[in-house]
Amino acid sequence: MNKRVVYLGGEYRPWDEAKVHIMCHSFGRGSAIFEVIGFHGTGSGPAVFRLDEYVSRFFRSASLLEMDPPLTPEGLQEAILQTVKRSGLRSGFIKVFGFYPEISFKILPPQQRFQVAVFVFSPEEALGDQQESVNGSVTACVSRWRRLDPQTVPVEAKVAANYVNGMAARMESRERGFDYAVLLDTQGFLAEGGTESLFLVREGRLLTPSLGTVLQSVTRKSLLAVAEEMGIETFAGRLSPGLLEEAEEIFFSGTSAKLLPVRQAGDRVLEDVPGPVTRRLAERMATITSGRDSRFQEWLFPAS
User: Fold this and answer.
1) What is the CA radius of gyration of the chain?
2) Angle, nearest 10°, between helix axes 51-64 and 218-229?
3) Fold for the domain defined by 5-125
4) Which CATH superfamily is domain 136-289 in?
5) Which residues in the chain come in under a pLDDT of 70?
């Protein structure tokens, strides 16, 4: 990675020059916004999945926190594509940061204008020992921690401070012998995983918690669109935790694993994992991200 180029403050720099002071506002207050984006190998080279949607959400996070971006959405898209191209990788992950580099003791940042950094990782560098679970199935339990309430912080913002919530839930699940956590919202309904969207299949219908208490996930949005195109009935609403005992299939979704089947939810062990709906969706998403589905070609942004 030391030979890799990063985008930082409007310039492409060596990896080792991507530094900020420990006393900067975003380190001390968790005020950095970010995105994690996947890029995939296609017949014509690497392509970034739904880049426009991720960049739009990045700017939405900035707006919610009254942060002043240093470049336009189009400028950020170009910076991301160029960083991927310069990496020489065929597939992997991109992490985009928006942060305040200035030293600050105060709760408010010294200024609203922030700095942007873009990093590129191979799948091995990004996922490490998680790769095996991404390609298989996982266990999950309902966490004692609840999803952040939208009346306390802007849960739509993908900001570092909000992710202590998911981190605590994941740590608890590991202590209990499970791979992943399922968080309920403060009203007791299903919300999402620590950093993943949650889906269930019940009587052939694809169910997922409604927006409002969960992140507006790009992968979640994509799966719902693909499912509807495939003729799979979908429903987004308030879901009881009891559905974890009733659903024929359960899976998480996110950037690192478009679909991650759950083989055990609490004490319940599911059979035939992945189930037929999960398998169909996973196969279709693999076709789309590899550039072999003309109906969703506009979701791919070439970086070659």
Assistant:
1) 19
2) 140
3) D-amino Acid Aminotransferase; Chain A, domain 1 (3.30.470)
4) D-amino Acid Aminotransferase, subunit A, domain 2 (3.20.10.10)
5) 1-2, 129-135
- The full length of the chain comes to 304
The per-residue pLDDT for range 32-42, each reduced to its tens digit, is 999 999 999 99
| pLDDT tens sequence across 49-101 | 999 999 999 999 999 999 999 999 999 999 999 999 999 999 999 999 999 99
Tokens of 58: 């990045």
